[in-house]
């Protein structure tokens, strides 16, 4: 089994494909993220589940988080380890030659967290990526994905990964 798969990197702007409009914002890694590149040939495209943590970077801490307006500053609760679902797919923008990982953290954040560090631990596969006829079908499937993720992560063996040192060691 390739799991657990650890991913980390700075959150960057995605393609604005309407994640937020669907009630499912997805945090993107930079296109050259080496952890994502390492998954090529090891795993299928599709939807995965696992744990994720958003962490202020050292420069944000030193600058008093100057990159972010006060109302956008994350709370102590926001920076805990949360369940996540991840979509892994070939990026049509790069002629399907680049693998893209987008992570929806299952938590209501106080604001956006672009430029923050995102650490994720991928623990299992849910389903392949499908072509959806309509948005309702897509949203229904995303809701099911979240339930599957919650149920899997509630098992002790999976829950233990949320306390892994990977999430807590300094950058
Ligand atoms: P983009 O195309 O820039 O990725 P999205 O609509 O997918 O835009 O929104 C993603 C952004 O939303 C993330 O980069 C992050 O800053 C913010 N965000 C807020 N809440 C969440 C969440 N629960 N999961 C993922 N991203 C979130
Ligand atoms: Mg996104």
Automatic annotation (TrEMBL):
- Does ATP-binding show up as a keyword for this record? yes
What Enzyme Commission number(s) apply to this enzyme?
2.7.1.26
Quote the cellular component terms of the Gene Ontology held in the record.
mitochondrion
Alphabetically sorted, this entry's keywords are: ATP-binding, Flavoprotein, FMN, Nucleotide-binding, Transferase
Role noted for this protein = Catalyzes the phosphorylation of riboflavin (vitamin B2) to form flavin mononucleotide (FMN) coenzyme.
Q: Which family does it belong to?
A: Belongs to the flavokinase family.
**What's the protein called, per UniProt?**
Riboflavin kinase
**Species of provenance:** Collybiopsis confluens
Q: Covered range within the whole protein?
A: 31 to 201 of 222
């Amino acid at each position: 089994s390739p799991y657990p798969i650890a991913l980390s990197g700075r959150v960057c702007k995605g393609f604005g494909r309407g994640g937020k409009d669907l009630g499912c914002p997805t945090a993107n890694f930079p296109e050259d993220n080496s952890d994502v590149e390492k998954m090529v040939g090891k795993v299928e495209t599709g939807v995965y589940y696992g744990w994720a943590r958003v962490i202020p970077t050292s420069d944000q801490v030193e600058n008093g988080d100057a990159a972010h307006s006060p109302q956008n500053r994350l709370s102590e609760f926001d920076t805990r380890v949360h369940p996540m679902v991840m979509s892994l797919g070939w990026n049509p923008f790069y002629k399907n030659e680049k693998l893209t990982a987008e992570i929806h953290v299952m938590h209501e954040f106080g604001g956006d967290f672009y430029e923050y560090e995102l650490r994720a631990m991928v623990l299992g596969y849910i389903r392949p990526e499908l072509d959806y006829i309509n948005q309702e079908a897509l949203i229904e499937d995303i809701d099911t994905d979240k339930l599957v993720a919650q149920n899997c992560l509630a098992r002790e063996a999976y829950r233990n990964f949320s306390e892994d040192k990977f999430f807590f060691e300094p950058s």
